Amino acid sequence: MKRYDYIIAGGGLAGLSLAYxxxxxxxxxxxxxxxxxxxxxxxxxxWCFWEKVGESSFDPVVFRRWNEVYxxxxxxxxxxxxxxxxxxxxxxxxxxxxxxRTELAGNPNVTFLNAAIDRLTDTSDGxxxxxxDGQYIADYVFDSITPLDMENPxxxxxxxxxxxxxxxxxxxxxxxxxxxMMDYRVEQGGVGVRFGYVLPVSDTRxxxxxxxxxxxxxxxxxxxxxxxxxxxxxLKIEDFTIEDEEFGVIPMTDERPKTSKRNHVIRxxxxxxxxxxxxxYAFKRTQRFTQQLVTELLTKGKPQRRQWTLRRWFKDxxxxxxxxxxxxxxxxxxxxxTRLYKKNPTPRLFAFLDEETSWWDDLRVMSTxxxxxxxxxxxxxxxxxx
Length: 386
Ligand SMILES: Cc1cc2nc3c(=O)[nH]c(=O)nc-3n(C[C@H](O)[C@H](O)[C@H](O)COP(=O)(O)OP(=O)(O)OC[C@H]3O[C@@H](n4cnc5c(N)ncnc54)[C@H](O)[C@@H]3O)c2cc1C
Prior knowledge:
The protein has helices at residues 13-23, 93-105, 220-233, 283-299, 310-327, 333-343, 346-353, 359-366, 371-385; strands spanning 2-9, 32-36, 46-52, 62-66, 68-72, 78-82, 86-92, 110-114, 117-123, 126-131, 134-143, 157-168, 180-183, 193-202, 205-214, 241-253, 265-267. It is an alpha/beta fold and 386 residues long. It is globular. 39% of the residues are buried.
């Protein structure tokens, strides 16, 4: 059995981000094994996120960036939102994988293994991994492959699911200077909320997506039908060619990952609860949490357990409350989001969603939601936990 200092189980966003930050520090001298069942040679996803100017480690692979976004809300509200000090960025999965893999290729201490992990356990001797090819052990295994429990009745469990087509049109049909971040004009129905999303590459090429926050997936043909409807009714596009497509399901849950007693297996990524429960955004949080892990390894020699703080508890409760309001249909989701974007400057809302606001700004954002529905959601979310 081969021993490493660290094993990274899953070389996707979280695994590669962690390896990248390790490689930027003296941890580059540790032996690191990255195991993934896929070769990561396709553009399997699109990451978008907002970021304050000049913040990113991955700026070299940002594919498109914008300082304004369109927002189409309920009841005829529409606005081009000024993002202030923020930039909305798009990174293509394949560019990220290639970039990090190239950076790591220069380090002989990093080994990639293309294999499926069959078993991953915490033993007294370290984190232990079995693949079809062999067995490996490490002081720490960083696990981004174990799924979160989405059945816990004490938690709120929703799915963000979407289908996107990258299309080209024979005539100019998009504004390449401004994506559509949320378009709630689409017909709403069932649990949760639905919206359109447009990332322009040029005036004749864009990724157009149909997204739902809900409790269950649609039939495959339903996504296609809704995409056709969105293109025809709202973007006024009927003549187009599909160049590429993407489909994704992101857990939106306030479930916490289970921690192992021995602490040799550390959950990261979606598996580690890095996805913001109320939005499904994970890219930036993944950067923050993996950088924090590297700092802990450098300063304390081991990953630290998540500390309880009032601030942390309060932010988690805000996520649970929004999920509760959506899941229980306490208020139409499209109207909740329209109020948030209409009544707050976008930079304040972005800072709120990034969990970087002061208590005072938190209150200012919270005062813009439908208070009755959110109070009932808050109460229910609290009762569910106890
Ligand atoms: C299509 C799509 C689009 C998204 N867009 C955005 C976005 O715009 N903004 C945003 O913030 N978030 C977005 N997300 C959410 C989130 O950022 C991504 O899901 C992100 O990839 C999560 O990182 P991760 O490392 O947890 O998982 P992944 O990136 O999926 O990495 C997990 C890796 O583990 C490997 N693996 C799984 N099981 C095994 C096994 N048994 N053995 C070996 N390897 C295994 C997989 O092959 C994969 O490479 C999107 C998600 C999807 C699916």
